[in-house]
Amino acid sequence: MNNDKWKFLLGLANRAGKVLSGEELVLKEVRSGRAKIVLLSEDASQNTTKKITDKCNYYSIPVKKVKDRYTLGQAIGKEARVVVAVSDNGFATKLTVLLDE
Questions:
Q1: Which residues of 57-85 are buried (b: 16+ CB within 10 A; e: fewer)?
Q2: What is the CATH number of domain 2-100?
Q3: DSSP secondary structure of 33-54
Q4: Quick one: which H or E segment has residue 83?
Q5: What is the pLDDT of residues 5-54, one digit of tens each?
Q6: What is the domain partition of the chain in residue ranges?
């Protein structure tokens, strides 16, 4: 059940307009400091994984891994997504707790 809780919360954050998906949009959010947490699928390419993790480490943004791109896309009601950024502190904090369980 805990596996589903983070998906419901991410969907809620998306409906609240606090989620951006896509590599370039996420990188832009990270650079501007608006991203509070980044979710990256485990099946992302090595290049994408390195680019996202390096940028997030530089700007001190936490990165959490999720199962795959289809799970991540389904959580926000879209097709497969490799990376998403959440721009709200409340959602980011709760997502961190749920994904660490």
A1: eeeebebbebeebebbbbbbeeeebbbbb
A2: 3.30.1330.30
A3: T--SEEEEETTS-HHHHHHHHH
A4: strand 83-86
A5: 999 999 999 999 999 999 999 999 999 999 999 999 999 999 999 999 99
A6: 2-100
pTM above 0.90, yes or no: yes
CA dist 67 and 72 (Å) reads: 8
Q: 72 and 44 in contact (C-beta within 8 Å)?
A: no
Asked if pLDDT for residue 1 goes beyond 60, the answer is no
As beta bridge partners, residue 66 has 41
How many angstroms separate the CA atoms of 37 and 96, rounded?
8
